[in-house]
Write a structure and sequence with these properties.
By secondary structure, the chain is an alpha+beta fold. It has 2 domains: about 5-160, Ribosomal Protein S5, domain 2; about 165-290, GHMP kinase, C-terminal domain (Alpha-Beta Plaits, 2-Layer Sandwich). Helix content is about 35%, strand content about 30%. Strands 1, 2, 3, 4, 5, 6, 8 and 12 form an 8-stranded mixed sheet that branches. It has a 4-stranded antiparallel sheet with strand order 9-10-7-11, with helices on both faces. It starts with a strand and ends with a strand. The chain binds adenosine-5'-triphosphate (ATP). Adenosine-5'-triphosphate (ATP) binds near residues 104, 179 and 257.
């Protein structure tokens, strides 16, 4: 086999509950991940060394060296196999960069799947999940796709049943937000407010809404503890969220650490209408319609 191409989806967090800061600098999380139909494509081709090239409008914002998460994933997989395999990776980026949609993690997951195939390793999903957990908290879910709840740092995953398809509108912002900065701002706001931070718990009402395919209840139950921090760092997000709600979204929230905003609609047609209205409001760099859940990395 000379090359393998894998298509991999972005994610939105339907619930992101952030516990107190732990001694090790991480937070305990309850993280309901949902894979949506915005895709990067990663091609892995046989080569002697390890290299990466990034294509697409946002390519300039993504490192093309060993800092690229897809390169780190390929090297970690070769290390696991105990061999010095080579690969030339090409990433076609559509997932917003530093947008709170786990694009880097998606590329890492795609690289694991593509190289596993290219190198003929035949490793089972469980082995890939173990390697993924070392690469970053969002990488295991990126391997799984669908909808799942993550606990711990978000890497201990349980798949969730979803009764149907949800229709989404994403408002993409100019420039990204650093995940680390958003967590730090969340801790700062909590300390300043003298808030006692509770242990994170998954919302039963949200799980029921997912199981029932009930977009209205999902919209009402979605919640992101990082949202106040993201909005403090990027005040224009308040206007974007308000605009979506005023235009009839069933629910609106910042995706992960932002700055992408997610709106749930009650049908595909409603999502298209909402996207057109949000575009006309001029509250986003770009507005994209998508659906979820979708499967994880798929060889194409
Ligand atoms: P999350 O939702 O997991 O917090 P994010 O969507 O906010 O992540 P990413 O797009 O994954 O953020 O990227 C964060 C940073 O990681 C980027 O600013 C970029 O410098 C770096 N990076 C490394 N590899 C990649 C990659 N393959 N794609 C995108 N960014 C990458």
């Amino acid at each position: 086999m000379n090359s393998v191409t894998v298509r991999v989806p972005a994610k939105v967090n339907l619930q992101l509950a952030v516990g107190p800061l732990r001694e090790d600098g991480y937070h305990d999380l309850v993280n309901v991940f949902h894979a949506v139909s915005i895709f990067d494509e990663v091609t892995a081709a046989a080569e002697t060394g390890v290299s990466v090239r990034v294509e697409g409008e946002t390519a300039g914002q993504v490192p093309e060296d060993d800092d690229n998460l897809a390169v780190r994933a390929a090297r970690a997989l070769a290390g696991h196999a105990g061999r010095s395999y080579g690969v030339g990776l090409v990433i076609r980026k559509a997932i917003p960069v530093a947008g709170g949609m786990a694009g880097g993690s998606a590329d890492a997951a795609a690289a694991l799947v593509a190289c596993n195939e290219l190198w003929g390793l035949g490793l089972p999903l469980d082995d890939l999940l173990e390697i993924a957990a070392d690469l970053g908290s969002d990488v295991p879910f990126a391997l799984l796709g669908g909808t799942a709840v993550g606990t711990g740092r978000g890497e201990r995953l349980t798949r969730l049943e979803v009764g149907g398809t949800f229709h989404w509108v994403f408002a993409l912002a100019d420039g990204g937000l650093s995940t680390g900065r958003v967590y730090a701002e969340c801790d700062r706001l909590r300390a300043a407010g003298g808030e006692r931070v509770a242990r994170p718990r998954v919302s039963g009402a949200l799980l029921a809404a997912l199981r029932d395919g009930d977009a209205k209840t999902l919209g009402a139950e979605m919640a992101n503890d990082l949202q106040p921090a993201a909005v403090t760092l990027r005040p224009s997000l308040a206007r974007t969220l308000d605009a979506g709600r005023d235009l009839g979204a069933l629910g609106a929230l910042v995706s992960g650490s932002g700055p992408t905003c997610a709106f749930v609609a009650d049908s595909e047609a409603h999502a298209r209408e909402l996207a057109a209205a949000l575009t006309a409001e001029g509250v986003a760099r770009d507005v994209v319609v998508a659906h979820g859940p979708v499967p994880g990395p798929t060889v194409v």
